[in-house]
Design a protein that fits this description.
Oligomer: single chain
Order of helices and strands: HHHHHH
Distance between the termini: 53 Å
Structural class: mainly alpha
Strand content: under 5%
Radius of gyration: 17 Å
Helix content: over 70%
Shape: elongated
């Protein structure tokens, strides 16, 4: 039982360290995201993986996964910040792509 707890602590520390690095490397993340909230959210998300599964994920792969999650978090709600005119331009641009 102690070993599992220690393994979880290692996973949490790893997620925290990588998340800090990814956020520090991107100004958008720094402006839009709260580091502590994101770490808590990611720890909960990755808690679904066993300690063994987490060990199998390379640092590069984990950083990639965290980055993809953070970008969704950072841009979610961005459309809410647009004016009606900007939203029309956005809608027109999206319609032209389909």
């Amino acid at each position: 039982m102690v070993q599992v707890a220690a393994g979880k602590e290692v996973a949490i520390a790893r997620i925290s360290e990588i998340t800090e690095k990814v956020i520090a490397s991107d100004r958008l993340y720094q402006e839009k995201l709260d580091l502590d909230e994101m770490i808590e959210s990611l720890v909960r998300l990755f808690d679904k993986f066993s300690v063994e599964e987490m060990k199998e994920i390379s640092d590069e792969d984990l950083a990639y996964r965290i980055d993809r999650i953070l970008i969704v978090e950072a841009v979610s709600g961005t459309l809410n910040d647009l004016t009606p005119e900007e939203l029309e331009i956005f809608d027109a641009a999206v319609e032209n792509r389909w």
